[in-house]
Amino acid sequence: MSYPALATRTAVVTGAASGMGAATARLLAAGGARVALLARRTDRIEALAAEIAAAGGHALAVTADITDQDSVDAAAAAVHDAYGPADLVVNNAGVMLPNPLADGRIDEWTRMIDTNLTGALRVIRAFTADLTAAAADGRTADLVNVSSIGAHVVFPDYAVYGATKAALTQLSTALRAELGPRDVRVSAVEPGLTDTELGGHIDNPALREQLGGMFAAIPALTAEDVADLIAYTVSRPRHVNLRHQVVLPTRQA
Question: Is 0.85 surpassed by the pTM of this model?
């Protein structure tokens, strides 16, 4: 689908180096938005920015680590210098590191909480003033938090991951109460089984095999499917907030 409403937007997409983030950035840029690509992997986002530019779009590669507030603040400053204030923020960066809770993997717990929840909060802190100013000027303003079906469906050994995503979904609900009256839309998108790099960091062989079995049994969503939903969400009329969306492969219960 095409989304002409994107043509005047200035977007920030975190986790833009791959998967849903990269696909979302491509689609927003194809619709005419200026897109800031935030991620740690400089080579990936620079290549994506070049790809978007070659297709006639506008993209800015901004190296950023959302687990570091100074890095996020510097990224926000770079976006402002290049494009001015953002009116569309897609909080997509995240990690999934499942293991039995009894394994006591504090390293994984800390990384997931700091990326999936606190990292999202850092980005929100950096760009909320932009969003509220855009809304006050009568423009459309969107915050999209990419959560997961794991926010409310229990998967054994994914407890901490699910907890971070449940927190992100709840945060989105709470932020609607704060930002909605100021005309900033807040949306939570919860994908089910999606073919991205997310499972590539799993270090538990049994859980890697289990996830591979799910992909073999169920035709998964693509990153582009989720990007299309995000683009649709932020292209609605300004008074319409698609607040909470769960998107699953048809065969996933």
Answer: yes
